[in-house]
Write a structure and sequence with these properties.
Layout: E1 5-13, H1 16-25, E2 30-31, E3 41-44, E4 52-56, E5 61-69, H2 72-84, E6 90-91, H3 94-100, E7 102-109, E8 115-122, E9 141-142, E10 146-147, E11 151-156, H4 160-171, E12 174-179, E13 189-193, E14 202-205, E15 215-220, H5 223-236, E16 240-247, E17 253-258, E18 264-269, E19 282-284, E20 288-291
Parallel strand pairs: 1-4, 5-8, 11-14, 12-19, 15-18
Antiparallel strand pairs: 1-5, 2-3, 3-4, 6-7, 7-8, 9-10, 11-15, 12-13, 13-14, 16-17, 16-20, 17-18
C-alpha cells in the first residue's frame, strides 16, 4: 500500500509565462512542450512527461500533489482504505488521467485540506532532458531502486498529528524524523518518506500557509549546479529566501529562492539516501548544520 514517490505537482499561477520563464531560465527545468486543452504548461526533469503542471488561475498556490503507487493493486488498496476510514475519494475520468499521463488516478484530501491525486502507471516518454540552463541531470532516481519522485514538498497541517496519522496509516508513508525548529515555540515539522531511499518526500508543517505549500525541493547532481543557479537567480533579481546552508536531517546543501507567485523552491545537492530497514526515527531541535539565514519578504 505504500506510496512509491511524490510524482508531480499541479501549480496555480496568475502569470504562467513568468513561471515558465523562471523555471526554465533559473531553475533549469525543461518546457515539456505538451499540448493541453485547458491551456496548462508543463515542466520536465527526466523521462517523466512532466513533473510540474502550471495552470492559469486568479490566485497563486498549490492545486494538488500527485502521489505515485507502484501498481494497480497497491493503488486500489489505498483507495479502499481511505473510503473505509470515511474519507471522500473521487475517481478521475479517463480524459483527466490521459492529461496527467497516468493509467488511473483518484482525488482525496488529507485532514488538513491538502488535495492529493493518487495514481499508478505513469506513461514515460524517455525523451532526454535538454535544460535551457545547462543542468545535466536532476536527481529523481537511484540505481535500481527506481523513481524517487521530483524531490520533496512541505505541506501546511495545523492538525499535524491527525494529518501525520493519515499519511502513515492510510497512504503508507513512514515517519523519518520530527523537528522542533529553534526559536519557533510550539512549531513542529514531521518528515515522512515514501518507498524509496530519499530521506523525506513529504513533510508537514504545524501551521497555515496562504499558498498551500511551505516549499518544494529540487535536487541536482553537484554543488556547481547549485552555485550556477544562484548566479542565474541573482541576474534575474530573484528573492533569496534562505542563503546557502546544509540541513541536519537530510544533509541537503541548498539555497531557497522564490518563484513567481511566491512559492519557495529549495534547490539542493547531496541529499541523504537511507536504507529503511535499518533506520530509527529521530527527534531534533536543530534544523541546520550551518547557513540557511532566512529573509522573508516584507519582514525586517
Amino acid at each position: 500500500m505504500s506510496i512509491s514517490a511524490v510524482g508531480y505537482l499541479r501549480i496555480a499561477a496568475t502569470d504562467t509565462n513568468a513561471w515558465m520563464d523562471y523555471a526554465t531560465q533559473v531553475l533549469g527545468l525543461m518546457d515539456a512542450g505538451l499540448d493541453d486543452p485547458q491551456g496548462a504548461r508543463f515542466l520536465r526533469m527526466d523521462d517523466h512527461p512532466f513533473r510540474f503542471m502550471i495552470e492559469a488561475a486568479d490566485t497563486d498556490g498549490l492545486l494538488a500533489t500527485g502521489l505515485e503507487f507502484p501498481d494497480e493493486q497497491a493503488w486500489q488498496s489505498a483507495l479502499d482504505g481511505l473510503s473505509s476510514a470515511g474519507h471522500a475519494v473521487t475517481g478521475g475520468s479517463a480524459e483527466e488521467a490521459a492529461r496527467r499521463r497516468v493509467t488511473a488516478f483518484a482525488t482525496a484530501q488529507d485532514p488538513a485540506g491538502n488535495t492529493l491525486e493518487l495514481y499508478w502507471g505513469r506513461a514515460l516518454d524517455y525523451k532526454p532532458l535538454i535544460s535551457p540552463a545547462g543542468v545535466k541531470k536532476f536527481v529523481t532516481t537511484f540505481q535500481q531502486t527506481g523513481d524517487m519522485g521530483f524531490g520533496h514538498l512541505v505541506l501546511p497541517a495545523p492538525n499535524i498529528d491527525e494529518t501525520t496519522a493519515f499519511y502513515t496509516d492510510l497512504i503508507g508513508a513512514g515517519v523519518t524524523d520530527i523537528l522542533s525548529p529553534p526559536g519557533l515555540e510550539g512549531v513542529k515539522i514531521h518528515f515522512m518518506h515514501a518507498n524509496n531511499p530519499r530521506q523525506h518526500s513529504i513533510a508537514l508543517f504545524s501551521g497555515e500557509h496562504p499558498l498551500g505549500i511551505v516549499h518544494m525541493m529540487i535536487e541536482v547532481e553537484s554543488m556547481d549546479d547549485v552555485g550556477l543557479m544562484m548566479d542565474r537567480a541573482k541576474v534575474q533579481g530573484s528573492h533569496v529566501l534562505a542563503t546557502l546552508g546544509r540541513h541536519v536531517n537530510d544533509n541537503m546543501c541548498s539555497v531557497y529562492v522564490l518563484a513567481p507567485g511566491g512559492i519557495a523552491v529549495e534547490y539542493g545537492y547531496d541529499g541523504m539516501l537511507i536504507d529503511w530497514e535499518n533506520h530509527v526515527a529521530t527527534v531534533s531541535g536543530e534544523g541546520d548544520l550551518w547557513g540557511h539565514e532566512y529573509s522573508f519578504p516584507g519582514v525586517n
